[in-house]
Amino acid sequence: MPQPGEQVEFVVVEEEAGTRLDRYLADKLSDLSRSALARTIDKGLVRVDGVTAKASLKLRAEARICFAMPEPPRAGPQAEEIPLEFLYLDEAMAAVNKPPGMVVHPAKGNWKGTLAGALRWHLEEQSQAEDGEPQTTGLSTLGGATRPGIVHRLDRDTSGVIAVARSEQSHHALAKQFERRTVAKTYLAITYGCPQLDADEIDLPIGIHPYQREKMAVRRDHSTSREAVSRYEVVERFGRKAALVRVAPKTGRTHQIRVHLAAVGTPVLCDALYSGRSTIPSEFFGGKAGGTPLIERQSLHAARLEIDHPTSGERLSLEAPLPADMEGVLAHLRSL
């Protein structure tokens, strides 16, 4: 079995021609979990004859497959006593108003201070201490050890509503709604510059950025590109300087709203990746110089999530108020 990080190369023989890429690798690397292989392929890290390949690719004889062995999964996050604002909570699911700056689940460089660790303290460890019995339904484990209860995610610096599954059954039911796009998500964004139209639909495919791996980009006819649709309406304009925009993504691509708004010339304010600024000083819009920065993270907030309860089927509308930093930016803009 190759070691993590080691370059792996296979050449398809005649008898293996026609096999799907994911099945081929699963047979060759039987000690590696299918989920780890799937993540490696989905991230665009597996190349066939030098080209990024999809899991469904049917291999031809003499095709050359190359990729680096993924790192083994880490143990789950430790429970951490971090305050959380619960918007909804019962035995089947929870919804949290995630603060800006909080990473959803552990990953390279972010092993502590995550939402997953906080959830373990609030929904597993704490209930153990109260009743003296092991907690068996605290959080779903379907997402893997590092993602207890996590069904979907928000970027670290995006605040707002995030749903959490408390059992495997609930996880399946919630995940299916995201997959079938029956969930309705509404975001509020402060943009740098104003959209020309009061409302519009942005229909632009998104794929991995050609040069910067941490970014996504509008890309057509590329192996990593996926359909991406966002509808927006302008809630409030501040001359030509900025706008408060309500956005409803119809698909769920990585960085979708940030990429789409930047693509039409009105990036999310203070979006370090897509607007080029990591902080907005008070003088940026004409205020007094030398004050406290208006905001130091992307001005994007998941304001509402409409989803069916995983067991009762009741339609829930879960809302998170606009955080103080974004309210402060709006107050400043209104004062000018």
Looking at this protein, list some descriptive labels.
alpha+beta; Structural Genomics Hypothetical 15.5 Kd Protein In mrcA-pckA Intergenic Region, Chain A; Pseudouridine synthase; 3 domains; nine-stranded mixed beta sheet; four-stranded antiparallel beta sheet; 15 strands; globular
Q: Segments where pLDDT lies below 50 for 5+ residues? A: 131-136
Number of domains: 3
Identify the CATH homologous superfamily of the largest domain.
Pseudouridine synthase
- Gross morphology is globular
Largest sheet: 9 strands, mixed
Structural class, from secondary structure content?
Answer: alpha+beta
Q: How much helical structure, as a percent, in the residues?
A: 10-25%
Strand content: 15-25%
CATH topology of the largest domain: Pseudouridine synthase
CATH class of the largest domain: Alpha Beta
Helices and strands, in order, run as EHHEEEEEHEHEEEEEEHEEH
Number of helical segments? 6
Report, as a whole number of angstroms, the end-to-end distance. Answer: 64 Å
Q: How many E-type strands?
A: 15
Radius of gyration, Cα only, in angstroms?
22 Å
Give the rounded overall mean pLDDT.
Answer: 91
CATH architecture field of the largest domain: 2-Layer Sandwich
